[in-house]
Amino acid sequence: MRIDILTVLPELIKSPFEASILKRAIEAGLVEVHFHNLRDYATGGYKAIDDTQFGGGAGMVMMIEPIDKCITKLKSERNYDEIIYMTPDGERLNQGIANTISLKENIMILCGHYKGVDERVRDMFITKEISIGDYVLSGGELGAAVLCDAIIRLVPGVLGNETSALTDSFQDNLLAPPIYTKPREYKGHKVPPVLFSGNFPEIEKWREEQAYIRTEERRPDLLED
Ligand code: ADE
Q1: Is the CB of 91 inside a 6 Å radius of any atom of ligand 1?
Q2: Left, alpha or beta for 16 (phi > 0: left; psi -120 to 50: alpha)?
Q3: Of the ranges 33-42, 45-54, 101-110, which one carries the lowest mean pLDDT score?
Q4: What fold does the segment set 169-224 form as a domain?
Q5: How far apart are CA 39 and CA 6, in angstroms?
Q6: Is 116 in the pocket of ligand 1 (CB under 6 A)?
Q7: pLDDT (tens digit, 9 = 90+) per residue, 214-224?
Q8: Which of 16, 78, 144, 149 is the most buried (most CB within 10 A)?
Q9: Which CATH number applies to 2-152?
Q10: Would you list the domain boundaries of the chain?
Q11: 138: CA distance to ligand 1 center in Å?
């Protein structure tokens, strides 16, 4: 998978890719991530990438020309399965969306800033708009980092244990069950004995029950879908 990230603040989004699982995925050649600074595509003496809104109103708008130049250059080099715009008015990210995107070969992610982008960018180039939740971030970069983390860990070979992404919370619309490690007892708090019974069908049954109970208690909305 190849991900191209278009941003005015590359320094805000690079570090998540320089640590842990994302770093290993890149080093193993399973994922390529490229950053493009939209300022490099700006024209004019001031290298402006934003301007005031037509019709008046507070806040600057990202101009279409630098974005067009960057997207058009990338599209001339390869085909993109999705060109995603990170925005609070997009579709709210969930595990299903992450699963779908993780199967794509080439994706582009545009990070918005200021008030957002000129609407014609969305009309002309964007194939999918994603929000990471009902709150406003100061830019799309942190949202793009969240999206990339959610999809890259699903790319085959990225997680050591191939089954581990399948047992995550949300994969079957259930939250994950409680998990424990040593010691068996800590300050009077005991691990449920079934987990060291060695009876794997029983353990599986317990986990399924716990996942259901937890989902019912915390996220009953997941059981309605
Ligand atoms: N940009 C600003 N707020 C955002 C959000 N909630 N999700 C994605 N991108 C954003």
Answers
A1: no
A2: alpha
A3: 45-54
A4: Trp Operon Repressor; Chain A (1.10.1270)
A5: 10
A6: no
A7: 999 999 999 99
A8: 144
A9: 3.40.1280.10
A10: 2-152, 169-224
A11: 8
